[in-house]
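From the thread on structure requests for the teaching lab: each student submitted one protein with a one-line request. Submission from student K.M.:

"Model TLC domain-containing protein from Tetraparma gracilis, tokens only."
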Amino acid sequence: MPFTISSLAARWRPPSDSLYPTLPIQAFFFLTASLQWLWAVRDAFFTGKSLSVADGALQDFMMSSQYHELDAAELVTMHTAAPGSIFLRKLGGGCLLGLASNKLFLFVFAVPFTDARSFFSMHQPTVLHALFSNLALAAFHLYTLAHVPPASPGPLFHALYFRIGLLALEAAVLAALYLREFLLPVGVRGALGRYRGEETDFQGYTYSKNGIVSRIVMRTVTLVSGFYSIIFFRDLFMPGVPIPSYPFDLAYLAFTRAFVHSPPPGSAGDARLGEAAFFVGDKLSSQLTALAMLLVVAYKMTSALLLRKGPMTSMAEVNSCIGLKRKDTERTSGYIKCTQTWKLAFFSDMLIWSTIWRFVHVAADKAGADFHMFHHLMVVFFETFILGCFGFLQPVIPNGKPEEPVPAIESDGEGAAKKAKKDA
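Reply posted by the TA:
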């Protein structure tokens, strides 16, 4: 067969008449997620760059245009612009890039399944997280719209309305597909994935089907993500409020200009009435970064705490749903789902880690600045390492203790016969 686009598609897709996602669904999510991916790449790597007239008006309102074509080391030596502001914008862009990449991988680049029910059963955590992420981001843009002065230029309103409509449309399509193809046929009880009883795996271990998939990942994600998500929860709902006993929190707030756009009551910034209104763009950018970070944390928490082991599933049975033939090994159904989410979470954590490392340490080396207030964010590296090991290497996780063999009980007659035979 000559090498053509159709022959390449035939090799990639299994020979079936009912592949899912279908081509119209793939085309729709390719268009919508690609736009979000493009905006996130701009925020992460080309902060402040204008992509259109409406987008330029939004960048001006969010006070991001002044950071275009400036790197971290230059901003550290500047006195007119704070490096913490561009750091938050790049960090939020990395998180939004991970969220958009999840949808692109799920509906465009992943190998399609032979039926819709198997697709949603395997990728249910990613589908639900994408749905709620879209709703949360759309609600935040509505919140941003409420802070726009009525005398603002028309392109600014157009940019916000376009983003709200895009996120709402994508969320509506996701909800319709999930309800029609999975939730209504399976039911709420089947979608929750709660199991009863015990089962024996291929290693002879007896485990509870309602147990946690990996306690190592659960502890790592809970401790690491729970530790640094506290500051982003504060930045979203209570910007500028210091957290007592949190390490380097005052230095972090000063570095990110939280005391400028959200001065605490009774402080010197609060005494200068009306000054914080000029920095509403910085406040909204900080809140958007906090929301994106919390959405990434929620995705990791879902796989670590909510998914259960479930029954043993043959990998050949899973691969038959996507038309592949691999070695017939057995894993729990929850472990197979978790490996998919851990791979995507690893990508998001890599973007977060690379942003922190590229900005903080490169700027510190070039400009000699002190960034000890970011050391508590460096723990994300350990979490990235654990997610990468369990997502890509897929080690065999012991599910419990092996069953002890029960000794055979012999009668007196059988025992005497065996002893006489042995003596003879």
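TA comment: Confidence is low (pLDDT under 50) at residues 1-17, 322-328, 402-411. Residues 207 and 400 are 5 Å apart (CA to CA).
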